[in-house]
Amino acid sequence: MASPPHEAMHRIFQHDPGLFSRVSRFLGVDIPAPVKATALPTDLTEANPVERRVDTLLRLETADQGTYLLVVEAQGKKHPDKPASWAYYTAYLWTKYRLPTALLVVCQDHATAKWAQQPVSCGPPQLPTLTVQPLVAGPHNMPVITDPEEARADLVLASLAAITHAAEPDVDAILKALSTALRDAPEDIAKPLVEFTAQGLAKRPAKNLWRNLVAVDLSFYKSYLAEEVRDEVRAEVRAEVRDEVRDEVRDEVRAEVRDEVRDEVRAEVRDEASAESRAEDILLILEQRGLDIPEDVRSRVTHCTDPELLRRWLARAVTVPRAEEVFGDA
């Protein structure tokens, strides 16, 4: 599955096919602006061989230099098999469409860009046969656009500059300039560039800055980036509301339980009061009958909380000859 930066680095050329001619001056070539552009199928699979797909394929028509094909490949890291694939793409497309074919590789780091722009030949050193040497756009040659006015003059190029410099120290200044320039742009122009830039930054630290800039300054509430911010804020708010609701429910349950416990305690206190009164009655009867009441008898009677047992002792207290016999087990 292609990563967001991979998609952003080539799909931005689908969004604005004329971008290639504007980028070309930074690559040391002069490519005329197209008067017509057509996106072609990216599937280069033949009848039987292994499936092969380019990232972006455009047919560009110019006023003075005719028509040519542009293959845009996003390359995130060095890969020894890529030059052979690029050779296949260009040769196949040249054969299929009979049109000159240009290859542009977009990178986000210096090492990959340096590797990608080296010529690779098919065949022995003395018989190169076919040599692949793509144009490479990356942090080494893409402009550092930190002036909002310069960014406003070419918003798509400014977005590509941010994407290719995603890991560079200058990216923060580029993003600030781009967000300022986009502030006055119509939503149908600004929104896709916000998305391309966000995808190109991926999980790099600059992504947080870009997200804050567009969330505050641009208010693209329906955009992927704004929805991402909304989801995070929703999660935070949900946790806060959950704590609030938990406290509310706890208070409600506490009130209900307090009422239940109050009834239980009232019944317990009532039983205790009844037991104390009955114990006092037992001791009073024994005293009125003139019986000697040992301390152990007095303690056992006063500490008893069983109403039924106290009732039986009370009945015996009227007739027993000695206080110890009030329990019936002495």
Strand residues, percent: 5-15%
- The structural class is alpha/beta
Helicity, as a percent range: 55-70%
**Global geometry:** rod-shaped
Average predicted confidence as pLDDT:
85
Rg result: 43 Å
Number of strands: 7
Total number of helices: 12
Any low-confidence stretches, pLDDT <50, length ≥5?
Answer: none
Instruction: Give me the side-by-side strand order of the main sheet.
Output: 1-2-3-4-7
The largest sheet, given as strand count, sense and whether it forms a barrel, is: 5 strands, mixed
Straight-line distance between termini: 90 Å
- The oligomeric state is single chain
The sequence of SSEs as H and E is HHEEEHEHEEEHHHHHHHH
Provide a descriptive summary of the structure in words:
With 330 residues, the protein is an alpha/beta fold. 55% of the residues lie in helices and 11% in strands. The protein contains 12 helices and 7 strands. The chain has helices at 4-15, 19-24, 82-97, 110-116, 148-153, 155-164, 171-182, 187-201, 206-218, 224-288, 295-303, 307-317; strands spanning 34-39, 56-62, 67-74, 101-106, 120-122, 130-132, 135-137. The strands form 2 sheets. Strands 1-2-3-4-7 form a 5-stranded mixed beta sheet. A two-stranded antiparallel ribbon has the order 5-6. α7 packs parallel to α9 (206-218) and α10 packs parallel to α12 (307-317). It is rod-shaped. It starts with a helix and ends in a 13-residue tail after the last helix. The mean pLDDT is 85.
